[in-house]
Amino acid sequence: MRVRVPQLACVIAAIIAIPGVAVAQSSPDSSPALDRTRLPIAEPIVKPITELDVRNTQPPPRFQVTAPQGAPNVVIVLIDDLGFGATSTFGGPIPTPTLDRLAKSGLRYNNFHTTALCSPTRVALKCGRNHHTANAGSIMETATAYPGNTGAIPNCVAPLAEMLRLNGYSTGAFGKWHETAAWETSVSGPFDRWPTHQGFDKFYGFIGGETDQWSPLIFDGVIRIDPPLKEGYHFTEDMTDQAINWIKAQQSLTPDKPFFTYFATGATHAPHHVPKEWIEKFHGQFDAGWDNVRQESYERQKQSGIIPESTQLPPRPEDIKAWDSLSDNERKLFARQAETFAGFVGHTDHHIGRLIDAIESIGEMDNTLIFFIAGDNGTSAEGGMVGMFNEMTYFNGVQEKVEDLIPLMDKWGSPETFPHMAAGWAVAFDSPFTWTKQVASDFGGTRNGMVVHWPEGIRESGGMRKQFGHVIDIAPTVLEATSLPEPEVVNGTPQTPIEGTSLLYTFNEPDALEQHTTQYFEIFGNRAIYRDGWFARTIHRAPWETGKQKPLTQDVWDLYNVREDFSLAVNLASERPEKLKELKALFMTEAAKYNVLPIDDRVLERINPATAGRPDLMGDRTTLRLYEGMNGMMENTFINVKNRSITITAEIEIPDGGASGALLVQGGRYGGWSLHLRDGKPAYEYNWLGLERFVVESPKAVSAGKSTVTLDFKYDGGGMGKGGAATLSVDGDQVAEGRIDKTQGFIFSADETADVGLDNQTPVALGIGYGPKETKFTGKIHEIVVEVK
Question: How far apart are the first and last CA of the chain?
Fold first, then answer.
């Protein structure tokens, strides 16, 4: 039985009169009175003891903050890039037995919304405020200098985890984070916006927006670690093992202390990495194509009551071709992409099932409040019209071709690919809506299926809830369910009031009047406003459009009555111009209120800190001095070598018998560069998106003793991603030169790092090994200097 600590209006210190100890007054029922609106909760004030001999005294009662009696455990499961129409639970084609199981004994929500993008949804979820209020107007890597978009979560929006931790919960986060400002991801910190400084006692996962599921960049707390050496290793399985072990240990040691677990998979975000046996489970199941899959999901959704019978299926976006118009090779390739994605979904649901089974096995299922949110936004259409062997091509503005992808088809999903699927599947898996991730002005981007499960708190099994809900509603729901007040001050900082609305009113009242009545949406210029069943919106840009957009002032707005039009199929703008005018004005009011303005519709340009105007760890520095042991440097904390001339000078020492291995690398198998010694010979290899390689290599090995190896790269200029000439020298003498025909202008990788003396994760260069042990330089590195011009 968990101890209940009553909530009263003020802090009253120690209660029991102790010989020789003067204490504060007690409450009438002689129970501790804690002010949970000011966190951390103040300790009792005990006057100094005046008695000389300890034998004549009793110690004051131990002060300990405990959660309210009977407060439930809380588990939030958040899947990545999974749309409303993907899972069997919400009428989709992909079986999700774990989600089905929870829905059968819990509640489904078919009118729950996210922000349409990763970081904004995650930040809003965990603080209960709108994403712009928390400075997360876009993903952290595209933050700008404007309020609402700075990427720096302010102290005045304390996260739910910190509220719960300071109220007696154990807290653990596992999987994807993507909430730390891009310039704060180095060993220099600050670590204020890392998980263990955002309320979590335990963190095991990755910091950025995505990771290689086979070779992930993992942090345990703030320490980078190598993944376990295990045949067939996959990160989803690993993070599940970690979460299960933490929950079991926590309950074993402190069974009276509730836990809060945030379980956020990297799946099903690209890269779509999944064991081949899971892909084969879906072989042939998508041969009918995305139009057919979308139509069948729509029919199932109507038949099962997930969507109203009157719902219409809007046409797909014009840019996406009809399945019947595709070539045989296109259909074959695209079907394989869908099989891989479906396998990824099924594999993820399976491991979440292991987590649920573990909670049940220790007897905690009945009093665990579970939110299973099937997507932090709609399914991703960032794969473009044909999908991608390497998702980094999207972020560098490079279009892949079907003829290049067909030979790689059998490897799809394996460690030899970093894949994404064609946008047509994103629309199909977002049925019955038109658009996808990034489109905050369409429910295909924002409406995600959610299941809530809590046997001790929800009377109905298998119910459906239709009230409007938003990701900012989760934090206040948890506070109400745990009998905790919204804090007014946290860690000395007065708090911005929570902007979400608790959904607890819906748990046992299926027809309760909707309480969240107004909500704005905005991502990269796509914007909308919801008010009392009406929805006004404009589609400013498609997710596959990364170039310059039309002026915001030229956007055309639509109007929908969503209580009669679930899928946004009937535009009423011409019939109700006054209502549209009213809602457009409301959007501007809400946008000003929540720091949405000015709207920034740039995408790729904002990856560059100089263009975006956000802080850059390197600032205006043109020189970076590096030393042996410096590795795991994420791209936003390393000097920017893109689109400019560079000189790398490595002062090394070669032992008798020669040396090999990496000197300095950045990136990995799917894009980057490597300065290394192979069989003693210095070489520079530029790996362009895993598609082309350019190698400059000396014909002679470096002699034993101290040497200086220098790489000079003279950039052609004339724009981004251009080529240049590379020259290698040893002790001032040129030993090799060559042409680098093209470079990556925007980004090397979302999770691969820059490393001195080794190559972490996947290898940039061929032939020097795989992983930090095989690629470790066998000589000595005294220092390496990188200069940019």
Answer: 66
